[in-house]
Specification:
With 152 residues, the chain is mostly helical. The chain has a domain of 103 residues: Purple Acid Phosphatase, chain A, domain 2 (4-Layer Sandwich), CATH 3.60.21.40. The chain contains six helices and three strands, in the order E-H-E-H-E-H-H-H-H. Strands 1-2-3 form a three-stranded parallel β-sheet, with no helix packed on it. Helix 2 links the parallel strand 2 and strand 3.
Length: 152
Amino acid sequence: MNILHLTDLHFNSESYEKFTQHDMIEKLLIYLTELDKKVDIVIFSGDLVYKGDNIEDVRNAKIVFLDKLCKKLKISKEDIIWCAGNHDMNRSFKSEGLEERFDSKINDSDSLHYLFNKKDYDYQTALNTTSNYNNFIKGFYQDIDNVETSEL
């Protein structure tokens, strides 16, 4: 089994380096098709986009990069494993209450597990930073039955 590990594309639709991004993507795709090995699985370990608050960047990265990657490697979407990176999050969102909670109340693994299990207002608020990424992942795998996704 051959695994391709990719990370940190930092796709940005409005970048002055847009053509550089497209050239880099095209060169990567050419390189991958010239390899003498079939890629079975792709692991993308974060930072698909530069700013997770821009849903258009996420959509464009799918068209410009991911759709082409699947086609060139002759793999399906279910052969791609995702992990979010910090740039994939909406970093413009800030929760004072959540920051205060982490500063004063979450000081061990039990209190952290409590936050995730209780799913209270602070937990729900924290998910605001991941909404574009979560929507992208759900949409990316929407037509595949045997793939399980979960919100961050």
